[in-house]
Amino acid sequence: MGTKVLTMLEPLWQGFPPVDPWAVSGSASCTLAPRYESVSGARKFTRETLQGWDLDDLFDGVGLVVSELVTNALRHAVLAAPTLADTPPPARLHLMRWSSRLVCAVRDPSDDSPVAGEADSGAESGRGLHLVDSFSDSWGWHPLSGTPHGKIVWALFRLP
Questions:
Q1: Is 50 helix (H, G, I), strand (E, B) or coil?
Q2: Which of 9, 56, 108, 116 is the most core-located residue (most Cβ within 10 A)?
Q3: Taking CA 138 as the corner, what is the angle to CA 132 and CA 139, rounded to the nearest 5 degrees?
């Protein structure tokens, strides 16, 4: 894993016991095409990755969180952004596993912070970050370092 990825994930270590960020026992990532069908592709990628890591039983919660993070990246960053040559900048899904935690991170080209909608409202949209908060052990976001634009939104799961 490159130094750039480790630097952008530095906030993940706050509040947790010390861990060697170089001791990643597994990592996988995929580019998300600029269309909503990428959500199901991200879920499939997540399922296959978790199966390969013998973490199948975590898929329900992790898959839900991945769906929400990818949907938000597509809706609010990739498909909403004006682009040159009709090619939206891609988003990426990163899955990283350590012995005691799993991180799902979605990188997108927007500088805007994620905003949770009203959890109590009857609206279908705007509740995604409340679901992320409910199903993960922690989540957050920060601007990408070393690039003019973009952010990463992450969710952390403690492993049994």
A1: helix
A2: 108
A3: 60
